[in-house]
Amino acid sequence: MQLLQRRTAGEAIFDFMNNVFMLIICFVTLYPVWYVLVNSFNEGADAMRGGIYWWPRVFSLGSYQAVFANNGIMTAMGVTIAKTLIGTIVHVFFTAMIAYAYSRKELIGRKLYMLIGTITLFFGGGLIPTYLLIRDLGLLDSFWVYIIPAMFSFFDLIIFMAFFRELPDALEEAAKIDGANDFGIFCRIVLPVSMPVVATIALFHGVYQWNDYFTGMIYINNTDLQPIQTYLYRVVAQSSSNQMMAAAPGGVAQSVTSQSIKLATMVVTTLPIVLVYPFLQKYFVKGLMIGSIKG
Amino acid sequence: MSTGGKNPQPQPPVRSGRGASLARKWVQQRHLQTMALLGVVWMIIFHYIPMYGILIAFKHFDIIGTISSAPWAGLEHFRAFLEDDNFWYIVKNTLGISLLKLAIGFPLPIVFALFLNEIRSTRFKKSIQTISYLPHFLSWVILGGILTTWLADTGMINQLLLAWGWIDQPISYLAEPSYFWAIVVSSDIWKELGWSAIIYLAAMAGVSTDMYEAATIDGAGRFQKMWYVTLPAIKGTISILFILAVSGILNSNFDQILVLRNSLNESASNVVDIYVYQVGIQQGRFSYSTAVGLLKSVLALILLLIANSVTKRVNNTSLF
Prior knowledge:
heterodimer; A: mainly alpha; about 0% strand; globular; B: mainly alpha; 16 helices; transmembrane helix (chain A); membrane (chain A); transport (chain A)
């Protein structure tokens, strides 16, 4: 970079404008989220008057108290936490295990196995045949409908394989001499040294499990088994039609409104992801690149 | 990663001998085979059985019977969809929303990545990236909640427009079909801009600094370097992602539209995926809605093949 001379006036203007442009994008990205946060901490009835842009006008934790006192929301939250934890562990372990077997060159039938998987990337049965399958498997209204149909992904397998291929052969040969079988080698040696890619896939799948509302919507009737996103979907879909029916907010005496509970639920639902993802960022950027280049 | 010798042993000419050694090898790797076959079994159940289930599109399937026992219907369900009153506006909405997303949503992340690549401070660049892909991790349910809050009659957009005197009456944006496409496309860009830019930024990181120095000596300005150095360097990446975008063109984001649609904006929000869900899951017309879904998949496959051959010809890059 020695060759670069002093910045010219044109360069300086470019840099300045570019920084401003980026700051605008950051603002546009963050502000809607901030707006929800601020309004959720404002007293509900007062928030209905509007005009709260930067900071709560009448600070209140009432909406949050209402959220945490609501059994329906808390049950749904518990279902979401359970399905995210169990689903992620099962998905990562199962997909990694198959990817490890697929990545071994001596595996007989490897080409055929890869073909079977590649086809699933481009063709599928669609909504109705899948629904009928889930029904026939007896997974309707069962917690396992969140786990079993999502426990494997061929796309994630490709990312795992790209990583496993880079591992030195000597690692496994030493264990082979000690008499370990392939499954033992996978569990005790390969998986522990593959933490970057495990973290990537765990984040992707964890986010999927946390955010998925569709599975809970079509396969689950029992409200005790619905996840928080499905619960929220019903609240959001309802309140948007309610707002159109009765737009006039006049004469609301309660301090907590359905709107403020909705906002507080949204914040509570989003917080875990916002807290977790900056820590995993360096992993998933790497993982995404491996997947995109080799896939 | 093979554990055996480096050179493959010469194969014995007798077939039975070869089969026997293959069988012995298979027994040796039985743990490995079990692991691999678990995956195959899972894929057969959750991917291949539903593919077989597509047959009901050509049958009169009802809930009580099985797929094989249902009487054949030929192409009746396909014809019924083509003659349906909803057909044209469903096709119009599906294609319209998808093409808008492709035309606006595809190039914008490239532009964003180009400009982000020009930021000199690494720390500033990192922070912008972290912020820009935050929305990717929020669910469409949350974004639907944010959007309905902002676009409501008493929401922020109406309040500002009223305060500035640009409108006299609050506008119910989500109740107006004419606004729906714009809302869908812009909220999608808002959610995915930063995330889509990651791959381009990764590709740009691989461009050699010599090229930029050479361009500097030749007197190129910043825009010229972006246009003549960076952009050609990531051409291959752009092509691959373009093919993928085209193949997904008819999947006009089911999750997003399901959250934002309502009975008032239906004429602009009903797309194939929503229709399949409504007719199939909610009304139980399994055969008909499977036929509609299959028609869409076939169209998507044709589009994928077209995009693949076009980029192959223009750019010599292709998926297969």
